[in-house]
Amino acid sequence: MADAPLLSSPSLSPSELSSMLQGSLQLHQFFLNPDERPQVAYDQFQEEDELPVIDLGIIRSESYDDKTDCLRKLVRACKEWGFFRLVNHGLPVELIREMDTKARKVFNLPSQAKLQIHDPEETGYGYNSGSQDGYNFQGYWHEALRFQGDSKIRKDFVETTIPPDVDNFGVTLEEYMDSMEKLAKEVATHLAVALGLPSGSFSDACKGLLMRFNHYPACPQPLSTLGLLSHLDGFVLTIIHEDHVGGLQILKQLKQQQQEDEWISVRPQFGSFIVNVGDILQVHTTHSNIELIFYLFLGFFGAMR
């Protein structure tokens, strides 16, 4: 594939570029084949493509009718989209903004400092970029911070690897992860109830939490590569928060058989969450009377792009 001429990108700092090119990859090695490249602009939003909105405040309310209607809407969203936007979830906007700010401070560190945020046991903790082998896909234009596992191990890792000039990163991370774990289990509980199942059918399967911060620096050739290729999520639930720039795309499956499925861009809305119903919900159940429902969930899963 011939190298396309580079576009000027004044917002891409030398440190960001050197971070993305860390290792043996050259810029052109991030470029994808034409059929793998973005089909829709990241900021091309259509009104008919807006995700279903689930108001958690209504589900928590005392109104039986309103709550029942919202639970039915939740089931339809999972069945027809595999995604929905969660609002009135109760997480303070201040906490979301604080976590966002501190994650940005880590990504703004010099490349060599970020490369020290690494677990020698290769468990996937810490920092890596799309130019490195390991958990991340090789050759995609992003860098990431990844945290999971036991709280004590996580705290020890943060204290020994995150530079002290990122004030209280570990404190905010633990508060945010605790809040997100509670939220995920609550959503899983409501989903089980909406399907007429015991309330703990899905939340009891949420035994661990993976927290991942993805950063996509401005790219000199944005139409030639992607942060991540299309994929399905194999978790119980994936809960995503976007900043004001956006970039998340999902595959919308059309009901008309003569039409091809299409990629759509998700409009960012700071403070709300995008929830993706994960593959593990299909295999988690052994009840034959609801297997068809879960196959429908799988059939309508969107792949994040």
Low-pLDDT sequence parts: 1-12, 133-138, 285-305
- Major beta sheet summary: 4 strands, mixed
Strand content: 5-15%
Average of pLDDT: 75
* DSSP strand tally: 9
Helical residue percent band: 25-40%
Quaternary structure:
single chain
Structural category is alpha+beta
Helical stretch tally: 10
- Report, as a whole number of angstroms, the end-to-end distance: 22 Å
Tell the overall outline: globular
Instruction: Order the strands across the largest sheet as they lie in space.
Output: 1-2-9-6
The Rg value, from CA coordinates, equals 20 Å
Order of helices and strands: HEHHEHHEEHHHEEEEEHH
Summarize the structure.
The chain has 305 residues and is of the alpha+beta class. The protein is built from 10 helices and 9 strands. It has a 4-stranded mixed β-sheet with strand order 1-2-9-6. Strands 3-4-5 form a 3-stranded antiparallel β-sheet, covered by helices on one side.
